[in-house]
Specification:
The protein has 663 residues and is of the alpha+beta class. The chain contains 17 helices and 18 strands.
Length: 663
Amino acid sequence: MNNPILHSNTDRPEPPGIGEEETVWPSPPGLIASLMETRRSRLTVGALCLLLIPVILWQSGVWAHTTAVRSLKKEGDQRLVIYRSALQSEFEKYEFHPVLLARVDDFVRLLITPEDKRQREWINSRLDEFNSIAKTSATYLMDRNGLTLASSNWKSETSFVGKNFSFRPYFIEAMKGRSGRYFALGTTSNEPGYYLSHPVQAAGETLGVIVVKVGVQRLEEDWAASKDKVMVSDQDGIIFMSSNPAWKYKTLAPLSQERREAVRKTRKYSNQPLSSLPQIFREPYEEGAEVLTLGESTLNKSETVAAAKNYFFQTMAVPNSDWKLHLLSDMSSVRRTVAYAVLITSFAIVIAIMVALNWVQRRLALRERLLLQRQAQRALRRANDQLETRVHDRTADLKASNKRLKEEISERRKAEADLRQAQDELIQASKLAALGQLAAGINHEMNQPLTAIRSYSDNARVLLERERTDDVRSNLEQISELTARISEIAKQLKVFSRKADDGMEAVELSQVVSDALTLLGTGGKLTDIEIVNRINKADFLAKANLVRLEQVFLNLFGNARDAMQDSTSKRLEIDAEADDLWIRILVRDTGSGFAKGQVEKIFDPFYTTKEVGRGLGLGLSISYRIIEDFGGKLRAANHPDGGAVFQVELKRAKQPPMAQAGE
């Protein structure tokens, strides 16, 4: 390859003679070396370096500070989004409670006849029970004048019964026929809470207001545990929630006398002084962010400045409210980053100076040698030309590497965008799967009672034609019980979204197993199977829900029946054992059992070992969740003698069933 740079040296003519003088112009490195020959020039270069060093150090500190603050802001924005989502979800999950309670007929009757003491005591008990289940702070009913007629805390010393809260904005809003939302410090309990209200109406007239108070203590404890400094302020800049208790009921800026008087009239924060935070310095950074310096309010001014801390103060609005969420990030990490950057730059400058001095000394010695030996000078020029060639080639390589690096960065960004899109699609698919699981589960569990109803109705028609009225009456009673059972099953739509403590009672296992076998055997579906039921003790009482437990056994017996369709020996064994705390029920069939790897996946949703079209794969998944809600365990395994065996482990109940206690 014809390189003009290389040929410029090889084609250069030789000097006229060895002894002739030749003017040697110093190269740029040589020029620097020549500047260092005199004392004056060395002082000049040193002074320039001393002037440049502070500028370089200052610029590195500014760059490090800007980079660190941007990183701090980005992390803070992400944490603010998480805290805002948690705050919204904590309160939004209670918004439908007052709407549902306002439709209770008993509340309407009490508002119409408030002098009925018996009715009032009964409603107090119901509100107390609801409050315990919903885990809210308080639930109470007020008449149209704001007088509290019934409350969940009617037994406590700080009971709301007889108290008038007509001055509260949430009461005023509800009396206008709209739902109210309000955060305030309780005037009776002196505890903060989020108040949700809804009008109680009858015949188009507002008779009173039902209110649910949601406590914020758990949310603040979670914030404190995270070690982040988080707080929430209202439209007046008053901090009413904070991970630091010392900041609560302080203001971000001094309140005007007019606004202070308006807050005092609503008694929103009781008798709190509403003093402002001890701000020493506050500087805007950009929209939604500030640099804030806070002191300790208990110290005097000089001590406060000495004990002050710098925070990066970020603000984010909470949708559908006039609240603002704030995050204070400690700026000490920024100062450390700046210090490290300046220190590293200082080390780099020192090393660069040492390298430069060494290089200059070497260049001076080299220049002296070049002046003495022209041959050495020509060799040096050739080496210099070669060095320039290498630099050119190396520069080209660096440009190519830089181009490849940019392409890799672009591909990585595209991959990250694809990953985020895939995550969003996965979340949406999970929601649709959960919805389909609920619908399919209810269809699966209601199919058997409906089949039994049809069988009983067909038999009743035949018996009616034969004028066997007593048998017809018996069939109709069975149909009535099954329809009631279907109604109970339909109420379990919330099995995947609420705890199973509701409706828990002492259930007699022998009766549940007997009813499940009777229901499954309707229409001769178990006539060819030998049933061995060893659960005949009436004192086998488990803590469960009767209807939901019966669904589990229906599913287990039905699966056992299907597993033994092709078996020569069809035998279904049901046994139980108990200790002081647990009851374990064993359901064994003589089918083919589980194949290798099926036991680990048998309780997964939509997993089935049946043929296509004979099952959705949801029965065992739903049964597993039901037993888990009871506080028990559902296990599956292969029996040593063949077939499959399921173990249902439930907590043992001490008291008799509610149905028997009432007889």
